[in-house]
Amino acid sequence: MKTAYTSLLVIAMLTLFLSNQIQVSVAVTCSPVQLAPCLGAIMSSSTPPSNACCSRLREQKPCLCGYMKDPTLKQYVNTPNGKKVANTCDVPLPNC
């Protein structure tokens, strides 16, 4: 009987733990300067994006809508080469 209570207690604790898992998220500081490694690939269709570019693009993904709404930055993000870089890096451009 003692084993049954111990098993139930362990199951209850696991259920409680799994249902209350805390998800930690890292805040992203939106800074278009962080996308500097992508500039060559965005400016030239013959230059593929580097690993550093793709990594930074993934990090800045939550910021892309803001960049697309900024008239100065939109010309880089929302161009055929900008879309190609995002596609190559497997970062879908958001619909803003």
TrEMBL record:
Position of the signal peptide: 1-27
One of the GO BP terms on file: lipid transport
SMART domains referenced in this protein's UniProt entry, alphabetically: AAI
Protein name (database record): Bifunctional inhibitor/plant lipid transfer protein/seed storage helical domain-containing protein
Organism of derivation: Papaver nudicaule (Iceland poppy)
Lineage, uppermost ranks: Eukaryota, Viridiplantae, Streptophyta, Embryophyta, Tracheophyta
UniProt-recorded Gene Ontology molecular function terms: lipid binding
Domain Bifunctional inhibitor/plant lipid transfer protein/seed storage helical span(s) in chain numbering: 30-96
Key words of the record: Lipid-binding, Signal, Transport
